[in-house]
What we know:
The protein is mostly helical and 353 residues long. It is 63% helix and 0% strand. It contains 16 helices and no strands. The structure holds protoporphyrin IX containing FE.
Amino acid sequence: MTMLFHASSLEAITRIPDRPLGAFSDYVVETLPARLEDGDGEAMRRGIYPLIPEGLTQNFNKIALLDLKMVFTACGRMAVRCGTGKEEFLNHPVHRKLMEAIRQVSPSTPYIITYDDIVINNPESDPRVFTTGRVGYSEKQFYRGHRIIEGHLDASIGTLKEVLSGAPSPIPLLETCHESLRGAQKALALFLTELRTEDFLAFKPFFDTNGYTGEKGPSGAFSAKAPHVDILVYGRNLPPGCGEYLNANADYFPEGDLKAALNSLADGASLFDMCRNPAMQDCRAVCGRIAACLVGFRKLHLKTVLRHIGQGAHGSAEGKFAAGFLESRVRAFEGLRKDLDNLFAVRHPGLSP
Ligand code: HEM
Protein backbone atom coordinates (compact mmCIF):
# COMPACT_ATOMS: atom_id res chain seq x y z
CA MET A 1 0.00 0.00 0.00
CA THR A 2 1.58 3.29 -1.08
CA MET A 3 -1.36 5.65 -1.50
CA LEU A 4 -3.69 6.47 1.34
CA PHE A 5 -4.11 10.24 1.21
CA HIS A 6 -3.70 10.93 -2.51
CA ALA A 7 -5.77 13.94 -3.58
CA SER A 8 -9.38 13.12 -4.34
CA SER A 9 -12.74 14.51 -3.39
CA LEU A 10 -15.14 13.06 -0.90
CA GLU A 11 -18.00 13.78 -3.27
CA ALA A 12 -16.41 11.51 -5.90
CA ILE A 13 -16.78 8.31 -3.87
CA THR A 14 -19.55 5.82 -4.63
CA ARG A 15 -21.65 5.10 -1.55
CA ILE A 16 -23.77 2.16 -0.55
CA PRO A 17 -26.14 3.89 1.90
CA ASP A 18 -26.15 2.51 5.44
CA ARG A 19 -28.61 4.79 7.26
CA PRO A 20 -30.11 3.15 10.38
CA LEU A 21 -31.85 6.38 11.51
CA GLY A 22 -33.38 7.27 8.13
CA ALA A 23 -33.62 11.04 7.59
CA PHE A 24 -31.36 11.72 10.60
CA SER A 25 -28.62 9.51 9.17
CA ASP A 26 -29.14 11.11 5.74
CA TYR A 27 -28.57 14.50 7.35
CA VAL A 28 -25.34 13.34 8.98
CA VAL A 29 -23.94 12.05 5.70
CA GLU A 30 -25.33 14.56 3.23
CA THR A 31 -25.77 17.88 5.08
CA LEU A 32 -23.78 18.04 8.32
CA PRO A 33 -20.31 18.63 6.76
CA ALA A 34 -21.64 21.53 4.65
CA ARG A 35 -23.40 23.10 7.67
CA LEU A 36 -20.16 22.87 9.63
CA GLU A 37 -18.34 24.54 6.79
CA ASP A 38 -20.93 27.41 6.70
CA GLY A 39 -20.44 27.77 10.45
CA ASP A 40 -24.15 28.53 10.95
CA GLY A 41 -24.84 26.68 14.19
CA GLU A 42 -28.40 27.96 14.49
CA ALA A 43 -29.34 26.71 11.00
CA MET A 44 -27.79 23.36 11.84
CA ARG A 45 -29.75 22.99 15.08
CA ARG A 46 -33.01 24.12 13.42
CA GLY A 47 -32.50 21.59 10.61
CA ILE A 48 -31.65 18.68 12.85
CA TYR A 49 -34.17 19.15 15.70
CA PRO A 50 -37.23 17.63 13.97
CA LEU A 51 -35.11 14.73 12.71
CA ILE A 52 -33.79 13.57 16.09
CA PRO A 53 -35.38 10.18 16.66
CA GLU A 54 -37.35 9.47 19.83
CA GLY A 55 -38.07 6.25 21.68
CA LEU A 56 -34.87 4.51 20.56
CA THR A 57 -33.78 1.29 22.25
CA GLN A 58 -30.53 -0.54 22.76
CA ASN A 59 -31.40 -2.66 19.74
CA PHE A 60 -30.14 0.11 17.49
CA ASN A 61 -26.80 -0.61 15.93
CA LYS A 62 -23.44 1.08 16.32
CA ILE A 63 -23.88 3.23 13.23
CA ALA A 64 -27.00 4.76 14.78
CA LEU A 65 -24.92 5.66 17.81
CA LEU A 66 -22.19 7.09 15.58
CA ASP A 67 -24.75 9.27 13.77
CA LEU A 68 -26.18 10.67 17.01
CA LYS A 69 -22.71 11.36 18.39
CA MET A 70 -21.52 12.98 15.13
CA VAL A 71 -24.23 15.60 15.56
CA PHE A 72 -23.61 16.02 19.29
CA THR A 73 -19.87 16.46 18.64
CA ALA A 74 -20.61 18.92 15.81
CA CYS A 75 -22.90 20.91 18.13
CA GLY A 76 -20.10 21.06 20.71
CA ARG A 77 -17.70 22.38 18.08
CA MET A 78 -20.16 25.02 16.88
CA ALA A 79 -20.86 26.11 20.46
CA VAL A 80 -17.14 26.55 21.17
CA ARG A 81 -16.85 28.72 18.06
CA CYS A 82 -19.73 30.92 19.30
CA GLY A 83 -18.43 31.12 22.88
CA THR A 84 -21.52 29.39 24.31
CA GLY A 85 -21.44 28.86 28.09
CA LYS A 86 -21.68 25.44 29.76
CA GLU A 87 -25.21 25.79 31.22
CA GLU A 88 -26.53 27.20 27.98
CA PHE A 89 -25.02 24.31 26.02
CA LEU A 90 -26.24 21.56 28.34
CA ASN A 91 -29.77 23.01 28.56
CA HIS A 92 -30.26 23.65 24.86
CA PRO A 93 -33.29 21.58 23.69
CA VAL A 94 -31.37 20.16 20.70
CA HIS A 95 -28.47 19.03 22.86
CA ARG A 96 -30.78 17.62 25.52
CA LYS A 97 -32.74 15.67 22.92
CA LEU A 98 -29.54 14.31 21.39
CA MET A 99 -28.18 13.28 24.78
CA GLU A 100 -31.43 11.53 25.59
CA ALA A 101 -31.34 9.61 22.29
CA ILE A 102 -27.70 8.59 22.89
CA ARG A 103 -28.61 7.32 26.38
CA GLN A 104 -31.50 5.31 24.95
CA VAL A 105 -29.14 3.47 22.59
CA SER A 106 -26.35 3.04 25.13
CA PRO A 107 -26.66 3.47 28.90
CA SER A 108 -23.07 4.47 29.62
CA THR A 109 -21.16 5.56 26.52
CA PRO A 110 -19.68 9.10 26.38
CA TYR A 111 -21.89 11.55 24.49
CA ILE A 112 -19.09 12.57 22.14
CA ILE A 113 -17.62 10.29 19.50
CA THR A 114 -15.04 7.82 20.70
CA TYR A 115 -12.26 6.05 18.79
CA ASP A 116 -14.57 3.03 18.58
CA ASP A 117 -17.39 5.09 17.03
CA ILE A 118 -15.50 7.12 14.46
CA VAL A 119 -12.69 4.71 13.51
CA ILE A 120 -13.90 1.17 14.11
CA ASN A 121 -17.67 1.52 13.51
CA ASN A 122 -17.52 4.07 10.69
CA PRO A 123 -18.82 2.16 7.64
CA GLU A 124 -16.29 1.90 4.80
CA SER A 125 -19.04 1.96 2.15
CA ASP A 126 -20.96 4.95 3.58
CA PRO A 127 -18.40 6.89 5.63
CA ARG A 128 -19.25 9.63 8.12
CA VAL A 129 -17.00 12.73 8.22
CA PHE A 130 -17.18 16.30 9.53
CA THR A 131 -15.54 18.03 6.58
CA THR A 132 -16.12 18.40 2.84
CA GLY A 133 -14.27 18.00 -0.47
CA ARG A 134 -10.58 17.11 -0.43
CA VAL A 135 -10.31 17.62 3.34
CA GLY A 136 -13.31 15.32 3.80
CA TYR A 137 -11.56 12.71 1.71
CA SER A 138 -8.39 13.02 3.82
CA GLU A 139 -10.55 12.71 6.93
CA LYS A 140 -12.21 9.55 5.62
CA GLN A 141 -8.80 8.09 4.78
CA PHE A 142 -7.47 9.10 8.20
CA TYR A 143 -10.02 6.74 9.76
CA ARG A 144 -9.34 4.07 7.15
CA GLY A 145 -5.58 4.25 7.82
CA HIS A 146 -6.23 3.68 11.53
CA ARG A 147 -8.41 0.65 10.67
CA ILE A 148 -5.62 -0.77 8.50
CA ILE A 149 -3.18 -0.41 11.40
CA GLU A 150 -5.73 -1.97 13.77
CA GLY A 151 -5.90 -4.96 11.39
CA HIS A 152 -2.11 -5.43 11.53
CA LEU A 153 -2.07 -5.07 15.32
CA ASP A 154 -4.90 -7.59 15.59
CA ALA A 155 -2.94 -10.09 13.51
CA SER A 156 0.15 -9.63 15.69
CA ILE A 157 -1.93 -10.11 18.85
CA GLY A 158 -3.27 -13.39 17.41
CA THR A 159 0.19 -14.79 16.67
CA LEU A 160 1.66 -13.63 19.99
CA LYS A 161 -1.14 -15.34 21.87
CA GLU A 162 -0.53 -18.56 19.98
CA VAL A 163 3.17 -18.42 20.84
CA LEU A 164 2.49 -17.68 24.49
CA SER A 165 0.04 -20.53 24.77
CA GLY A 166 2.83 -22.92 23.86
CA ALA A 167 2.59 -23.40 20.07
CA PRO A 168 5.08 -26.15 19.11
CA SER A 169 6.82 -24.08 16.38
CA PRO A 170 7.00 -20.53 17.70
CA ILE A 171 9.57 -19.09 15.32
CA PRO A 172 7.42 -18.92 12.13
CA LEU A 173 4.61 -17.42 14.24
CA LEU A 174 6.96 -14.80 15.63
CA GLU A 175 8.17 -14.03 12.11
CA THR A 176 4.53 -13.53 11.06
CA CYS A 177 4.00 -11.24 14.05
CA HIS A 178 7.05 -9.24 13.02
CA GLU A 179 5.65 -8.92 9.48
CA SER A 180 2.32 -7.66 10.86
CA LEU A 181 4.07 -5.03 12.95
CA ARG A 182 6.10 -3.99 9.90
CA GLY A 183 2.78 -3.65 8.05
CA ALA A 184 1.48 -1.37 10.82
CA GLN A 185 4.65 0.71 10.56
CA LYS A 186 4.36 1.04 6.77
CA ALA A 187 0.75 2.20 7.04
CA LEU A 188 1.70 4.70 9.75
CA ALA A 189 4.46 6.06 7.49
CA LEU A 190 1.76 7.27 5.09
CA PHE A 191 0.39 9.56 7.83
CA LEU A 192 3.82 11.19 7.81
CA THR A 193 4.57 11.29 4.09
CA GLU A 194 1.16 11.71 2.43
CA LEU A 195 -1.25 13.41 4.83
CA ARG A 196 -1.35 17.18 4.32
CA THR A 197 -0.98 19.06 7.59
CA GLU A 198 -3.54 21.65 6.47
CA ASP A 199 -6.12 18.88 5.93
CA PHE A 200 -5.37 17.28 9.28
CA LEU A 201 -5.64 20.62 11.10
CA ALA A 202 -9.01 21.25 9.46
CA PHE A 203 -10.63 18.11 10.93
CA LYS A 204 -8.59 17.76 14.12
CA PRO A 205 -10.80 20.19 16.17
CA PHE A 206 -13.57 17.58 16.03
CA PHE A 207 -11.36 15.30 18.13
CA ASP A 208 -10.95 17.86 20.93
CA THR A 209 -12.14 17.22 24.47
CA ASN A 210 -15.70 18.48 24.90
CA GLY A 211 -15.36 21.32 27.40
CA TYR A 212 -19.08 21.13 28.26
CA THR A 213 -19.21 17.46 29.27
CA GLY A 214 -15.48 17.09 30.05
CA GLU A 215 -15.37 14.02 27.79
CA LYS A 216 -12.17 13.17 25.91
CA GLY A 217 -12.20 13.07 22.13
CA PRO A 218 -11.06 10.16 19.96
CA SER A 219 -7.33 9.45 19.59
CA GLY A 220 -5.07 6.59 18.55
CA ALA A 221 -4.15 6.70 22.24
CA PHE A 222 -7.49 4.92 22.73
CA SER A 223 -6.67 1.99 20.50
CA ALA A 224 -6.60 -0.93 22.95
CA LYS A 225 -4.79 -3.10 20.43
CA ALA A 226 -1.59 -1.04 20.66
CA PRO A 227 -1.21 -1.53 24.44
CA HIS A 228 -2.34 -5.14 24.03
CA VAL A 229 0.72 -5.82 21.83
CA ASP A 230 2.92 -4.09 24.47
CA ILE A 231 1.36 -6.28 27.17
CA LEU A 232 2.00 -9.51 25.24
CA VAL A 233 5.60 -8.51 24.53
CA TYR A 234 6.55 -7.07 27.96
CA GLY A 235 3.84 -8.12 30.47
CA ARG A 236 4.78 -7.32 34.05
CA ASN A 237 7.98 -5.62 32.84
CA LEU A 238 6.01 -2.73 31.31
CA PRO A 239 6.40 0.74 32.84
CA PRO A 240 4.16 0.97 35.95
CA GLY A 241 0.62 2.30 35.56
CA CYS A 242 -0.31 0.55 32.32
CA GLY A 243 -3.35 -1.28 33.79
CA GLU A 244 -4.40 1.78 35.81
CA TYR A 245 -4.33 3.94 32.67
CA LEU A 246 -6.46 1.44 30.73
CA ASN A 247 -9.00 1.16 33.57
CA ALA A 248 -9.13 4.91 34.20
CA ASN A 249 -9.94 5.55 30.52
CA ALA A 250 -12.15 2.50 30.01
CA ASP A 251 -15.02 4.56 28.52
CA TYR A 252 -12.83 5.71 25.65
CA PHE A 253 -11.41 2.37 24.50
CA PRO A 254 -13.31 -0.15 22.34
CA GLU A 255 -14.96 -2.32 25.01
CA GLY A 256 -14.12 -5.80 23.66
CA ASP A 257 -10.52 -4.88 22.78
CA LEU A 258 -9.99 -3.37 26.22
CA LYS A 259 -11.34 -6.47 27.93
CA ALA A 260 -9.01 -8.65 25.86
CA ALA A 261 -6.00 -6.45 26.72
CA LEU A 262 -6.83 -6.48 30.45
CA ASN A 263 -7.26 -10.28 30.35
CA SER A 264 -3.79 -10.63 28.85
CA LEU A 265 -2.39 -8.26 31.47
CA ALA A 266 -3.97 -10.35 34.24
CA ASP A 267 -2.75 -13.57 32.61
CA GLY A 268 0.79 -12.18 32.75
CA ALA A 269 2.43 -14.25 29.98
CA SER A 270 4.86 -12.24 27.83
CA LEU A 271 7.59 -12.72 25.24
CA PHE A 272 9.99 -11.04 27.63
CA ASP A 273 9.42 -13.69 30.31
CA MET A 274 9.29 -16.48 27.75
CA CYS A 275 12.76 -15.45 26.57
CA ARG A 276 14.16 -16.01 30.09
CA ASN A 277 13.72 -19.71 29.47
CA PRO A 278 16.99 -21.08 27.99
CA ALA A 279 14.92 -23.58 25.99
CA MET A 280 13.50 -20.66 24.02
CA GLN A 281 16.92 -19.30 23.08
CA ASP A 282 16.27 -19.80 19.35
CA CYS A 283 13.43 -17.25 19.52
CA ARG A 284 15.80 -14.56 20.69
CA ALA A 285 16.62 -12.93 17.36
CA VAL A 286 13.07 -12.54 16.16
CA CYS A 287 11.87 -11.36 19.60
CA GLY A 288 14.57 -8.68 19.43
CA ARG A 289 13.25 -7.59 16.03
CA ILE A 290 9.68 -7.45 17.37
CA ALA A 291 10.85 -5.24 20.26
CA ALA A 292 12.76 -3.02 17.80
CA CYS A 293 9.63 -2.73 15.67
CA LEU A 294 7.60 -1.42 18.62
CA VAL A 295 10.25 1.24 19.23
CA GLY A 296 10.33 2.03 15.49
CA PHE A 297 6.53 2.45 15.43
CA ARG A 298 6.66 4.89 18.34
CA LYS A 299 9.53 6.89 16.81
CA LEU A 300 7.66 7.18 13.53
CA HIS A 301 4.49 8.17 15.37
CA LEU A 302 6.38 10.88 17.24
CA LYS A 303 7.81 12.22 13.98
CA THR A 304 4.26 12.29 12.54
CA VAL A 305 2.93 14.17 15.56
CA LEU A 306 5.78 16.69 15.34
CA ARG A 307 5.10 17.26 11.67
CA HIS A 308 1.37 17.85 12.03
CA ILE A 309 0.84 19.41 15.45
CA GLY A 310 4.23 19.76 17.07
CA GLN A 311 7.04 22.21 16.79
CA GLY A 312 7.66 24.23 13.64
CA ALA A 313 5.23 26.29 11.63
CA HIS A 314 2.17 24.71 13.25
CA GLY A 315 3.72 24.45 16.69
CA SER A 316 1.26 24.66 19.55
CA ALA A 317 1.41 24.31 23.33
CA GLU A 318 -0.68 21.14 22.95
CA GLY A 319 1.77 19.77 20.37
CA LYS A 320 4.74 20.46 22.61
CA PHE A 321 3.06 18.81 25.58
CA ALA A 322 2.13 15.73 23.51
CA ALA A 323 5.66 15.56 22.07
CA GLY A 324 7.12 15.53 25.60
CA PHE A 325 4.81 12.70 26.63
CA LEU A 326 5.44 10.69 23.45
CA GLU A 327 9.22 11.19 23.72
CA SER A 328 9.10 9.72 27.22
CA ARG A 329 7.19 6.71 25.82
CA VAL A 330 9.83 6.22 23.11
CA ARG A 331 12.57 6.31 25.78
CA ALA A 332 10.70 3.85 28.01
CA PHE A 333 10.24 1.33 25.18
CA GLU A 334 13.82 1.80 24.00
CA GLY A 335 14.88 0.97 27.56
CA LEU A 336 12.72 -2.16 27.59
CA ARG A 337 14.15 -3.30 24.28
CA LYS A 338 17.66 -2.92 25.69
CA ASP A 339 16.64 -4.84 28.83
CA LEU A 340 15.50 -7.65 26.56
CA ASP A 341 18.87 -7.66 24.79
CA ASN A 342 20.73 -7.52 28.13
CA LEU A 343 18.70 -10.44 29.39
CA PHE A 344 20.34 -12.60 26.75
CA ALA A 345 23.73 -11.07 27.27
CA VAL A 346 23.51 -12.07 30.96
CA ARG A 347 21.91 -15.48 30.44
CA HIS A 348 24.09 -16.41 27.53
CA PRO A 349 27.44 -14.66 27.83
CA GLY A 350 29.26 -14.59 24.53
CA LEU A 351 26.16 -14.03 22.41
CA SER A 352 26.14 -10.64 20.77
CA PRO A 353 22.90 -8.55 21.34
C1 HEM B 1 -1.62 12.54 12.08
C2 HEM B 1 -1.51 11.41 12.74
C3 HEM B 1 -1.48 11.33 14.24
C4 HEM B 1 -1.37 12.31 15.17
C5 HEM B 1 -1.21 13.81 14.97
C6 HEM B 1 -1.40 11.66 16.48
C7 HEM B 1 -1.33 12.31 17.69
C8 HEM B 1 -1.21 11.71 18.92
C9 HEM B 1 -1.05 12.40 20.16
C10 HEM B 1 -1.04 13.93 20.31
C11 HEM B 1 -0.94 11.48 21.14
C12 HEM B 1 -0.72 11.75 22.65
C13 HEM B 1 -1.94 11.40 23.41
C14 HEM B 1 -3.06 12.32 23.13
O1 HEM B 1 -2.91 13.53 23.37
O2 HEM B 1 -4.12 11.85 22.67
C15 HEM B 1 -1.03 10.19 20.52
C16 HEM B 1 -0.93 9.00 21.18
C17 HEM B 1 -1.03 7.77 20.57
N1 HEM B 1 -1.34 7.55 19.26
FE1 HEM B 1 -1.43 8.91 17.78
N2 HEM B 1 -1.53 10.31 16.31
C18 HEM B 1 -1.59 10.07 14.96
C19 HEM B 1 -1.76 8.85 14.35
C20 HEM B 1 -1.84 7.66 15.03
C21 HEM B 1 -2.08 6.40 14.42
C22 HEM B 1 -2.32 6.16 12.93
C23 HEM B 1 -2.08 5.46 15.42
C24 HEM B 1 -2.32 3.98 15.25
C25 HEM B 1 -3.33 3.35 15.76
C26 HEM B 1 -1.81 6.14 16.66
C27 HEM B 1 -1.70 5.55 17.90
C28 HEM B 1 -1.38 6.20 19.06
C29 HEM B 1 -1.07 5.52 20.31
C30 HEM B 1 -1.03 4.02 20.54
C31 HEM B 1 -0.85 6.51 21.26
C32 HEM B 1 -0.47 6.31 22.73
C33 HEM B 1 1.02 6.57 22.89
C34 HEM B 1 1.85 5.39 23.31
O3 HEM B 1 1.33 4.32 23.62
O4 HEM B 1 3.09 5.52 23.32
N3 HEM B 1 -1.70 7.48 16.38
N4 HEM B 1 -1.20 10.36 19.17
